[in-house]
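Dear H.,

Thanks for agreeing to be a second pair of eyes. The structure we're designing against is below in token form, covering all 219 positions.
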């Protein structure tokens, strides 16, 4: 334990030196997240995207009860990641239809760590409260008042209590797939994720057609 404490102290002093901070500067004055680090030492931020979060909680058979216990354990890790990950540049984006206490243990605890909220049109006030009620109560009615003929309109809020309406541009599935294909080379190479990557067949390359050559014009 003493060795670990000493190593941590040495690393802290090295961090102070790299940031141009005097060794005697209090720790609370040092940057609290990765964005205060020099650009050449700053790690790339990571966004963890979770779609249909209810699937982490719902069970249909007795055989799935064991799976649920395992998922709850992973959920606790997600909650800790949401609490502590922002400083390390790790962010969660969680999506779902309903995100309330009826999902089970840990649901509202995870929701409380999600500081930014986006809520599209809701049919009932209870669902809107799940998304916005604990951070911007005045935005709940605004989410329920979105007209069905206005797709893409949503209400956003944050922990400051402020909220506003936004309109997202339409993006077809084909355009989204094309963007993914053209930017696939930017994805980092993480061998541990290879078993989870979908198979993408190679894009066939059309053979070039015959090239017309100019012929001399007889005089």
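And this is the sequence the design step returned. I haven't edited it by hand at all.
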């Amino acid at each position: 334990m003493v060795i670990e404490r000493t190593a941590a102290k040495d690393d802290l002093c090295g961090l102070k030196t790299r940031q141009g901070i005097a060794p005697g500067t209090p720790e609370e004055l040092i940057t609290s997240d990765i964005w205060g680090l020099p650009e050449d030492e700053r790690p790339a931020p990571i966004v963890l995207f979770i779609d249909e979060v209810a699937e982490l909680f719902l069970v249909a058979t007795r055989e799935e009860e064991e799976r649920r216990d395992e998922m709850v354990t992973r959920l606790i890790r997600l909650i800790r990641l949401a609490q502590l990950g922002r400083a390390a540049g790790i962010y969660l984006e969680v999506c779902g239809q309903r995100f309330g206490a009826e999902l089970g243990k840990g649901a509202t605890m995870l929701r409380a760590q999600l500081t930014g909220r986006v809520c599209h049109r809701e049919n009932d006030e209870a669902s809107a409260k799940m998304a916005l009620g604990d951070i911007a109560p005045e935005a709940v009615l605004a989410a329920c008042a979105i007209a069905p003929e206005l797709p893409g309109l949503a209400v956003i809020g944050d922990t400051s209590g402020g909220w506003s309406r936004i309109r997202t541009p339409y993006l077809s599935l084909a355009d989204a797939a094309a963007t993914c294909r053209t930017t696939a080379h930017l994805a980092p190479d993480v061998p541990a994720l290879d078993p989870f990557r979908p198979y993408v067949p190679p894009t066939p390359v059309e053979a070039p057609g015959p090239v017309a050559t100019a012929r001399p014009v007889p005089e």
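Two observations from my side: The longest strand covers residues 46-50. Confidence is low (pLDDT under 50) at residues 1-14.

Warmly,
E.
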